[in-house]
């Protein structure tokens, strides 16, 4: 009677501190330019070698420019961080997909698409959205810089086992409800702290019928409800996706692995510390109106009334609405917007770009909207061009840029100006996230594409 999480966790426990935490072996350690430099410096200062460099993969993503990537990086801080990562990887024999490499891209996009992420693995990265990889039935979570150093030195982590939660969504989704809507809906119902201390398994028809891309979108945002990570049981969809990926097992090894992966799903009598259930029929295309990902509504609804909230909630609610320039009880449909960002580790995979192309084909971008389409990786970019999506985008007034985190957190030049509204397919709508005093409305790629065409928030089921 074990859960998926139990099975993968147990297989990685190296030792147990008496009445204390466990030492957990880490199969894959992903790194990027922002959270690795201090950890490398720490090891160097203490003269400790990197224990297993072959278990580490590095990429350049957070502060890379998304145009002219073949030219030198202009921003001095970005340039320095990117160069430092290249030096650190070279010195320590770590595989590095830097700018210009055909595998470069957002860390949580490249590892799955290369087949580095696999079911049953334990994976970490100094990045909160590492939860994405749980879509394959891996235990994957973000760690802080001191833990990055710990994993560098030992390939292990000292950890207390998290509690387990299962969220089931059964039934059939309504038209144009995308995986992003499902996770925005869940977070809007349970709040941004509901998952604190838990690892969450997503189960039920909706996730079983979802593509790997969709499952990654869902698991990606687990952290936004406070969970340490999210997971979905590996199945035929997972195996089909992984088969023949560059780093996926091959031949006999593949068969052996698949046989093992099939043993991982939670036993039918497994017990979770917490269980929550939703009905797929209740979910409709979503949009956020506030400054955390839990402040979301279906596009048909109005912003909640402040009278419906308790005293504690009221203050942050009012602050969020003031920041966003909204009023309670207001509908957001037809609200004009200025920017659209289609990108990030939540929604910049090929499937997302196909959805957008499919919607915008034959239509024109509203002239008041600046729209950025930023592919999650070089491979996504290449695939999009191969399929002619770049031409579709161009004909509709959109430009396909080059891969990176971009306006998801605006560490590069892609910033939303002060006071402007941006419909974004990313995962965080915090104050200033996309640039100082910018205003973010989180939505699915389809809702974002529709906003770019109409110049305002629209219900995709009516437009
Ligand atoms: C820069 C990095 C530490 C950060 C994270 O951990 O999530 C970033 O990726 C984000 O999305 O805010
Ligand atoms: S795309 Fe955004 S959320 Fe994802 S890793 Fe980059 S900054 Fe973090």
From TrEMBL:
Question: Which Gene Ontology biological process is one annotated for this entry?
Answer: L-leucine biosynthetic process
Reaction(s) catalysed by this chain's protein: (2R,3S)-3-isopropylmalate = (2S)-2-isopropylmalate
Entries under Pfam families matching the protein: Aconitase
Output the superkingdom of the source species: Bacteria
Q: Which residues bind [4Fe-4S] cluster?
A: 345, 405, 408
The catalytic activity of this protein is classed by the Enzyme Commission as 4.2.1.33
PROSITE patterns documented for this protein: ACONITASE_1, ACONITASE_2
Cofactor, how bound (note): Binds 1 [4Fe-4S] cluster per subunit.
Which keywords fit this entry according to its UniProt record? 4Fe-4S, Amino-acid biosynthesis, Branched-chain amino acid biosynthesis, Iron, Iron-sulfur, Leucine biosynthesis, Lyase, Metal-binding
Class in the EC hierarchy, top level = lyase
Biochemical pathway: Amino-acid biosynthesis; L-leucine biosynthesis; L-leucine from 3-methyl-2-oxobutanoate: step 2/4
Aconitase/3-isopropylmalate dehydratase large subunit alpha/beta/alpha domain sequence ranges: 6-455
Q: Which cofactor does it need?
A: [4Fe-4S] cluster
Q: Where are the transmembrane segments?
A: none
Q: Which InterPro entries match?
A: 3-IsopropMal_deHydase_lsu, Acnase/IPM_dHydase_lsu_aba_1/3, Acoase/IPM_deHydtase_lsu_aba, Aconitase_4Fe-4S_BS, Aconitase_4Fe-4S_dom, IPM_dehydratase_rel_enz, IPMI_cat
Please give the Gene Ontology molecular function terms for this protein. 3-isopropylmalate dehydratase activity; 4 iron, 4 sulfur cluster binding; metal ion binding
- Outline what the protein does: Catalyzes the isomerization between 2-isopropylmalate and 3-isopropylmalate, via the formation of 2-isopropylmaleate.
Q: Which family does it belong to?
A: Belongs to the aconitase/IPM isomerase family. LeuC type 1 subfamily.
Oligomeric state and interaction partners are given as: Heterodimer of LeuC and LeuD.
- Protein name stated in the entry: 3-isopropylmalate dehydratase large subunit
Organism this protein belongs to: Chishuiella changwenlii
């Amino acid at each position: 009677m074990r859960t998926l999480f139990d099975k993968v966790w147990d297989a990685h426990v190296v030792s147990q501190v008496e009445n204390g935490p466990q030492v957990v072996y880490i199969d894959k350690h992903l790194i990027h330019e922002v959270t690795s430099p201090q950890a490398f410096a720490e090891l160097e200062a203490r003269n400790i070698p990197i224990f297993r460099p072959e278990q580490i993969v590095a990429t350049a993503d957070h502060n890379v420019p998304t145009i002219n990537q073949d030219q030198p990086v202009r921003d001095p801080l970005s340039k320095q961080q990117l160069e430092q990562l290249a030096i650190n990887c070279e010195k320590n024999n770590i595989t590095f997909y830097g700018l210009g490499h055909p595998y470069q891209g957002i860390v949580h996009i490249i590892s799955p698409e290369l087949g580095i992420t696999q079911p049953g693995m334990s994976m970490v990265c100094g990045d909160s959205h590492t939860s994405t990889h749980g879509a394959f039935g891996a235990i994957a979570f973000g760690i802080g810089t001191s833990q990055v150093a710990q994993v560098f030195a030992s390939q292990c982590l000292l950890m207390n086992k998290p509690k387990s939660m299962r969220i089931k969504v059964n039934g059939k989704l309504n038209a144009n409800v995308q995986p992003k809507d499902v996770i925005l809906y869940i977070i809007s119902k349970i709040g941004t702290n509901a998952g604190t201390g838990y690892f969450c398994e997503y189960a039920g028809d909706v996730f079983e019928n979802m593509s790997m891309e969709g499952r990654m979108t869902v698991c990606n945002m687990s952290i936004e409800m406070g969970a340490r990570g999210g997971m979905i049981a590996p199945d035929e969809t997972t195996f089909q996706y992984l088969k023949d990926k560059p780093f996926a097992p091959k031949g006999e090894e593949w068969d052996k692995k698949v046989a093992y992966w099939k043993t991982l799903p939670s036993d039918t009598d497994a017990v979770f510390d917490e269980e929550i259930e939703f009905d797929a029929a209740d979910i409709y295309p979503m949009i956020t109106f506030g400054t955390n990902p839990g402040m979301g509504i279906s596009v048909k609804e109005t912003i909640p009334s402040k009278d419906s909230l308790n005293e504690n909630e009221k203050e942050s609610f009012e602050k969020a609405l003031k920041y966003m320039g909204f009023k309670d009880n207001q509908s957001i449909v037809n609200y004009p917007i200025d920017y659209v960002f289609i990108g990030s580790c939540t929604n910049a995979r090929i499937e997302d770009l196909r959805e957008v192309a499919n919607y915008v084909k034959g239509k024109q971008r509203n002239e008041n909207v600046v729209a950025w389409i930023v592919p999650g990786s070089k491979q996504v970019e290449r695939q999009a061009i191969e399929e002619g999506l770049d031409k579709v985008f161009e004909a509709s007034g959109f430009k396909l840029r080059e891969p990176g985190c971009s306006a998801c957190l605006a560490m590069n030049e892609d910033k939303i100006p002060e006071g402007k509204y941006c419909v974004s397919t990313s995962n965080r709508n915090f104050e200033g996230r996309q640039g100082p005093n910018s205003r973010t409305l989180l939505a699915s790629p389809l809702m974002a594409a529709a906003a770019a065409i109409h110049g305002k928030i629209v219900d995709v089921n009516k437009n």
